[in-house]
Specification:
Chain lengths: 359, 200
């Protein structure tokens, strides 16, 4: 088959030609075919024959009278599934009874702590000096997410496998928070006398804000800060805790605070891709699979095993659930068009193929 | 000359509605689910029963397809072509079932070539009046003599109106292989129109 192969079989196996004879081609393409036909009188006959063959191949649809009964069958199965998934949730709740209680207790402590430091009168018996070095630490495990609400209306959402530390008591003024992992901050801005700054400390430096929405991710060797609203200052610190570099971020910018020896970088991003996890989603836009893997490995403490290393370049676009590994695997399988299976802590991509070859 | 110019995107008639329908399905609309089912049930079944030569298994496959879609409705995007998307998923479901039934895990070319190896009856092919009655038999015979893969390609192209690119996705082969299959199929069929007079 070459471009000069002027045969019926060559014409009809081209989508462009078929589009033209069916009248769905663009004007530009139509003109090209028109010119091509007019260039040689023999082509007119050829096109005529091709059209006749094309128009005569038509498969007749079968008569199906059971659409409605099959649709009823589908709804029956959907209802069954909904009921069984309800009882499944009940089972899970019972199985994880003790850990749930523990989580509630930790959360209660955390909430009490947060309320406490925003409402110092609760702790009126303790002096500022006594509580100066007291901190509360809040952690999340695989696939877990927590939201902390400060009494001034500010919210901090903690992503899976993360740890946040903050003073157990708060007497007004600037607030310091330490973060490992990922959190989304929605900090209320106060003006005038009530103005206070909030500083998020990470290994590589700190992020200083007055009031704003931003995401901080320290899962990797560097810390990534994505600004949704307002403005923040990112500071890089050396081992002596001295600020060596700082940058002001504007909305929609992502900053990477690297480890010692490299400079802070800033670039424009679609911030919603980085904050979707707060709504239990992971959104990807032509993101290579290896980036997706990096993210998920941090969220669930799993490892990926690719059947073919080439797969790591597969661009992933779409929305995947962030809070349910099973559903995530199902969705990834669909996006990848490759089998994805979980085996203990290992997620195999394209594993079915290799299993077949092994046999 | 321009035979291999850039392929245009295949437009399904009323595809704007289809996008809206798909979106409301993704948002959990059961009405949209019913609508999609009613639109595609017949044409999926026409394809499926030829793939597995078992109408009940083909129907079960449609149930599985829509159950699977519903389970993940809030995590899927809008495909370029809903029809192509459904066919890709449906074919995969049916083949997986068929493989399990046959207890064959190795998918080899020979096996895949045979999966669509069915014979079309005269009634299954609509013959336009450009071809006289006797030619109808010739065309039916000609199509039935094609390989299973060629028949399946023609079916996807002429029954479902898929583009070469979409057919490649369904058959999990590359674009050029689809073209080669079509080329060989038409080469075998073109003799039927050899004697048709051109209309001036």
């Amino acid at each position: 088959m070459s471009n000069h192969d002027e045969s019926i079989e060559n014409l009809l196996s081209s989508d462009s030609f078929v589009g033209w004879i069916e009248g769905t081609a663009t004007d530009e393409e139509g003109e090209r075919w028109q010119t091509w036909v007019e260039d040689d009188p023999a082509r007119k006959k050829l096109v005529q024959k091709a059209k006749v063959l094309h128009q005569n191949i038509e498969f007749s649809p079968g008569k199906h009278t059971d659409v409605e009964s099959e649709l009823d069958r589908l709804y029956h199965r959907l209802r069954e599934e909904e009921q069984s998934s309800k009882s499944k949730i009940f089972n899970i709740t019972r199985r994880t009874y003790y850990s749930s209680v523990a989580a509630i207790v930790i959360l209660l402590i955390a909430v009490m702590g947060v309320i406490g430091y925003m409402n110092p009168e609760i702790y009126s018996e303790t002096t500022a000096e006594e509580s100066q070095n007291k901190f509360v630490t809040n952690t999340t495990t695989d696939g877990q997410k927590k939201q902390l609400t400060l009494s001034d209306g500010s919210k901090i959402t903690l992503n899976a496998n993360s740890r946040i530390k903050y003073p157990a008591e708060y007497y007004g003024g600037d607030l310091d928070i330490w973060l490992e992992g990922e959190a989304f901050f929605d900090i209320v801005h106060f003006e005038g006398e009530a103005e206070r700054s909030l500083t998020v400390h990470v290994t590589e430096g700190s992020i200083k804000v007055l009031g704003t929405k931003f995401n901080v991710n320290t899962y990797e060797d560097a810390t990534e800060v994505v600004l949704v609203e307002g403005s923040v200052r990112v500071e890089k610190k050396n081992s002596e805790n001295e600020i060596t570099e700082d940058r002001i971020l504007k909305r929609g910018e992502m900053s990477r605070i690297p480890q010692v020896g490299q400079e802070i970088t800033v670039n424009q991003v679609r911030s919603e891709l980085f904050t979707a996890w707060t709504e239990d989603k992971l959104i990807f836009d032509n993101t290579p699979l290896r980036e997706v893997i990096r993210r998920v490995e941090h969220l669930y403490d799993v490892r990926f095993d690719l059947d073919d290393q080439e797969l790591e370049n597969t661009p992933i676009s779409g929305s995947l659930p962030n809070n349910n590994l099973e559903v995530f695997i199902n969705a990834l399988e669909n996006l990848m068009e490759q089998p994805v299976m979980k085996d203990g802590n290992i997620i195999k991509v394209g594993a079915l193929k290799s299993k077949r070859e092994d046999q | 000359m321009f035979l291999f110019s850039k392929l245009k995107d295949y437009k399904v008639p009323g595809d704007v509605d289809e996008v809206l329908l798909w979106k409301s399905f993704c948002n959990g609309g059961k009405e949209a689910l019913s609508k999609l089912f009613r639109i595609y049930y017949g044409s999926l079944l026409d394809y499926g029963k030829r793939l597995v030569s078992d109408e009940e298994a083909a129907k079960d496959g449609i149930q599985k397809l829509f159950l699977k879609l519903w389970r993940k409705h809030n995590s899927i995007g809008v495909p370029d072509s809903v029809r192509a998307y459904l066919i890709v998923s449906y074919r995969r479901i049916l083949l997986r079932e068929k493989e399990q039934k046959l207890n064959r895990y190795r998918r080899n070319q020979e096996y895949l070539d045979g999966i669509f190896d069915i014979t079309f009856s005269k009634e299954e092919l609509i013959i336009q009046n450009e071809i006289v009655a006797q030619k109808k038999d010739e065309l039916v015979k000609g199509i039935n003599q094609l390989t299973g893969r060629q028949k399946e390609t023609l079916f996807l192209k002429y029954y479902h109106g898929l583009t070469n690119k979409e057919i490649a996705e369904v058959l999990e082969i590359n674009h050029q292989s689809v073209k080669n299959n079509l080329y060989r199929a038409f080469k075998n069929l073109k003799g039927i129109v050899r004697s048709v007079p051109s209309i001036e």
